[in-house]
Amino acid sequence: MRQTFVDTTTALLAEDPRTALVLADISAAAFAPAATRHPDRVLNVGIREQLMVGVAGGLALTGLRPIVHSYAPFLVERAYEQVKLDLDHQDVTAVLVSVGASYDRAAAGRTHLSPADVSLIDTLHDWTVHVPGHPDEVPALLRAVVAGDGSAYVRLSTLQNDRPLGGDGTLAAVRDAGPGAPLLVAVGPVRDAALAAVADLPVTVAYTHRPRPFDVAGLRALAGTDVILVEPYLAGTSSRVVSAALADRPHRLLALGVGREDLRRYGSSEDHTRWHGLDAAGLHRSVSRFLGSRREAALPV
Predict the structure, then answer these.
(1) Percent with pLDDT over 70 in the chain
(2) pTM of the entire structure?
(3) Domain Transketolase-like pyrimidine-binding, which positions (predicted)?
(4) Of 14, 18, 87, 236, which alpha carbon lies 20 to 30 A from 37's?
(5) Which pLDDT score is estimated for 199?
(6) What pLDDT sits at residue 202?
(7) Could you tell me which residues are beta bridge partners of residue 97?
(8) 193/87 Cα distance (integer angstroms)
(9) What is the rounded end-to-end Cα distance, in angstroms, of the chain?
(10) Which residues, including other chains, have CB under 8 Å from residue 280's CB and lie 6 or more apart?
(11) Domains of the chain, first to last
(12) What is the structure's pLDDT at 136?
């Protein structure tokens, strides 16, 4: 996904003189050819993430469309105050593009982990969030948000599904278990694990790479009584949206994702996926327990 982002952004810089790119050393080498061709629109401020976002706010005030890029914890968590003030409060917009996701660089330690990034972006006003599940989904969605005029966060990861799914992010049913079946919503690169997890269960699976704005109409059309939410970041990030969308219906919600406990471990991204129960086996255990609790409650005493 990262290389696809570099290639697409390099093309956008050549095609649209409104496009700018602001870096804080991360990926600077990859963008060196673009910086040589467009020195006035490719800016590397060094390891100063807060300044990076502030510069993007200034560029936006001049009418440019800035793309701002770094690791998720540096881009969203470290520079959150500048995102809040220099973009939102000034009523200007930018496209933030992160790498690293929740734990892609787990071997680098806690400084490079960011499971709470989407939750933080969710505190801001009217942002679009894309969490692509495959590198081939990146070019179209990146071009769309750069061509737009709103603020957007694009969350790239080394984790990916086997194949891309296109579309604008509305919920797409990738497995239909019939009317009234429990609905599992898989966001981004957890789709394949979710499908494998429910292969022997009567569960409908829907996919989206755009958790914000959440496809409320699609959710209401697909959801029965039981809804399972699987997100590759902090568990429960979209719970409020799902609950509000179904507030007029009796429903149960199981929210799965990265846990809040600080594991204080290194390991690989695959290790963290397993430790947080986001692999197929872990998801199967959680979903089976959730659906089994309803069956047990229905048994006569």
Answers:
(1) 97
(2) 0.95
(3) 1-164
(4) 87
(5) 98
(6) 97
(7) 69, 154
(8) 36
(9) 53
(10) 193, 194, 196, 197
(11) 2-155 (3.40.50.970), 172-298 (3.40.50.920)
(12) 98
